[in-house]
């Protein structure tokens, strides 16, 4: 299978899959199992990013990665806002295993200020927003530099979202059935 499991020990990251909790914009868990998978190509880029972050004295905290098509449909049904939620009829880079939502944490495990929360559907979340502090902008620029240098590209409206280039033309969509152990209730 093209999807590989991302573990904290192998990738030197922290994992907090928000959609397996009620701490997401729907207010309810979307996944029944908090798991983190990426396509092998994205996993290789993640290893590079984690090493760069470590050299800068920070660590990556992954909030979401592979998102089954069933989960994408649930998010869209809750909030059909194309600026922040991909229409599942067209597919999402998350559904291809080549997108990752993440932030930076310091040596004590505290999230760096990014000026807007994860999945905050507001213009404060845009890259280049002038509605955030200088420190939040510096933290976003650090994350941006790490991720782009590792081979990802960014999505303009979400400071937390990175994906491999040309995702829709290079990678197939996966459903929850692609996993040996499901993330969604079947």
Automatic annotation (TrEMBL):
The active site is at 158 (proton donor/acceptor). One of its GO terms (molecular function) is zinc ion binding. Binds 1 zinc ion per subunit. The keyword Zinc applies. Its EC number is 3.4.13.22. Pfam families: Peptidase_M15. Zn(2+) binds at residues 94, 101, 161. The keyword Electron transport does not apply. Belongs to the peptidase M15D family. PANTHER family: D-ALANYL-D-ALANINE DIPEPTIDASE. This is D-alanyl-D-alanine dipeptidase. It comes from Thalassospira profundimaris. The gene is ddpX.
């Amino acid at each position: 299978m093209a999807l590989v499991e991302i573990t904290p020990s192998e990738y030197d990251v922290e994992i907090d899959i928000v959609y397996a909790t009620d701490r997401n914009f729907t207010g309810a868990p979307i996944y029944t199992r908090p798991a983190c998978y990426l396509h092998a190509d994205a996993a290789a880029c993640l290893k590079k990013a984690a090493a760069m972050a470590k050299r800068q004295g920070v660590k990556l905290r992954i909030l979401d990665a592979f998102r089954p098509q069933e989960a994408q449909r649930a998010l869209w049904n809750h909030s059909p806002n194309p600026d922040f939620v991909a229409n599942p009829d067209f597919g999402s880079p998350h559904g291809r295993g080549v997108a990752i939502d993440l932030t930076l944490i310091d040596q004590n495990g505290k999230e760096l200020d990014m000026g807007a929360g994860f999945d905050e559907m507001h213009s404060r979340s845009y890259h280049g927003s002038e509605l955030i502090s200088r420190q939040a902008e510096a933290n976003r620029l650090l994350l941006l530099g790490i991720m782009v240098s590792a081979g990802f590209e960014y999505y303009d409206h979400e400071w937390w979202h990175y994906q491999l280039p040309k995702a829709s033309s290079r990678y197939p969509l996966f459903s929850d059935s692609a996993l040996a152990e499901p993330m969604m209730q079947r």
